[in-house]
Amino acid sequence: MGSGGQVRLLLWKNWTIRRRQRVRFFMEIMWPVMLFMGLVWLRRVNPLYRQHECHFPNKAMPSAGILPWIQGIFCNANNPCFQYPTRGESPGLVSNYNNSILARFYSDAEELLFSDPEFLQVSRLWRELNAMSNFMDTLRTHPEKVSGRGVKVEMILKDDETLTSFLLRDIPLTESVVYHLVVAQIRPEQFAFGVPDLHLKDIACSLNLLERFLIFQSRRGLYSVRNAMCILTPQRLQIIEDKFYANVDFFKLFRLLPRILDNYSDGIDIHFWVRTVSAASDRLRE
Length: 286
Fold this sequence. Notes:
By secondary structure, the chain is mainly alpha-helical.
């Protein structure tokens, strides 16, 4: 290629470079201008609105209490914004809802119930109920744990019982037989699944069946009761059974049954239950 062709080629290359530089320069200038024009257009289409100062309600942590914690979760679920300072921003306060219906109800319930001495005894009811439940479960699942232990007949009779006088006067039984009957212990494991389907006559005349239901202090007492009861008619035996149930103090029975399994148990004090439940009902109505 001659010198003239080289010159033309060089000139063409220089022109191409300058052209690219001009295009790049134009784009560098126009790009910010186009971006600015787009922002102006968006501003005109969607005009700005003035936002007031925002105060967001605080959300209490669980350590502040169950009620403030739950209120902070549910009452602030949409994260509201207020123009004025919220109550919870004050020093020493963690809740914005002390005047709410739920807060007032909780405060009133705490004042009426948990400050009442009678209502505070509900924990004792739970302990007694738990002791009775443990005794019944043991009786059903592991009756051998209470085998050989029972409740004395005389301990579960009413204070003004008429059973002993009835046995002495109307049957009549000797004082020795009546004594052996009332100091005998009833085996509770035999009644874990209900009253056995046995005839009273069969029980009265059988040493094995008598020992199955009663624990006598001596063999002499067992034989004395068997000999005295076996000669009675079924009708007489049924009257004795009815008279016995009529003289049982079930308040004492529920008090003594759990002690068969745990000597330190207080059992269930039905009188105390009635007083506590009555006091709690009055407070709840209030």
